[in-house]
Specification:
Elements: H1 2-11, H2 14-19, H3 21-30, H4 38-52, H5 56-69, H6 75-89, H7 92-99, H8 106-109, H9 112-124, H10 127-137, H11 145-156, H12 159-171, H13 175-179, H14 181-186
Helix pairs in contact: 1-4, 3-4, 4-5, 4-6, 6-7, 6-9, 7-9, 9-10, 9-11, 10-11, 11-12
Length: 188
């Protein structure tokens, strides 16, 4: 279940992710006796999907459910999803708090965490941190490459890098993420 949600998150396919809400909630609730950070993270992914689809009330309900079972000490494990939610809400204070958390379990969560970090750094105008992180992620043929190129293009005011990123978003089928460029460049 978690892998399906993580894939939809990577693709920015919020309708598909939200469509899994009932099924995912049932799986999460059935798994509560076995503590796993994916339980609260999945709730947050569902919340994100509803937020992106304009249902803030449902998003906040799912977010509260996720945070209720998150436990202490897992802030960095949940930071990628929470960064994306803060971006959607235009919540600069939350972005500033979350961006300082280290990346945890990147190979487990997939490219979504790097995408959220790059987008948050662009929106915040943190060019120095962005340069350091993005340069490591410019790896041809990877799903994080367009996010890193867009971040570097924003930091350097380089239209060629932004165009490259746009073309890669299109070729990877990352339409929602592609459409966020102008919004991110405007900042929060």
């Amino acid at each position: 279940m978690s892998l399906e949600l993580e894939l939809a998150d990577t693709m920015g396919d919020w309708a598909e992710l939200a469509a899994q809400t009932d099924r995912a909630q049932a799986a999460i609730e059935a798994n509560l006796a076995t503590p796993c950070v994916r339980n609260p993270r999945d709730y947050l992914l569902l919340a994100l999907a509803h937020l992106c689809l304009g249902d803030d009330l449902r998003a906040r309900e799912l977010e509260r459910a996720g945070l209720r079972i998150a436990g202490e000490g897992y802030e960095s494990y949940l930071s990628g999803v929470r960064l994306r939610m803060a971006l959607e809400r235009g919540d600069r204070d939350a972005l500033e708090t979350l961006i300082v958390l280290p990346v945890e379990r990147a190979l487990v969560w997939g490219p979504g965490i790097f995408a959220a970090r790059m987008d948050a750094l662009v929106a915040l105008g943190h060019d120095e941190g962005l340069e350091a992180e993005a340069a490591e992620l410019v790896q041809p043929g990877t799903s994080v490459e367009p996010f890193a190129l867009r971040a570097l293009g924003a930091a350097r005011r380089d239209d060629d890098l932004l165009t490259q990123a746009d073309e890669l978003f299109a070729s990877l089928g990352l339409g929602w993420h592609r459409a966020q460029t102008e919004r991110l460049l405007a900042g929060v």
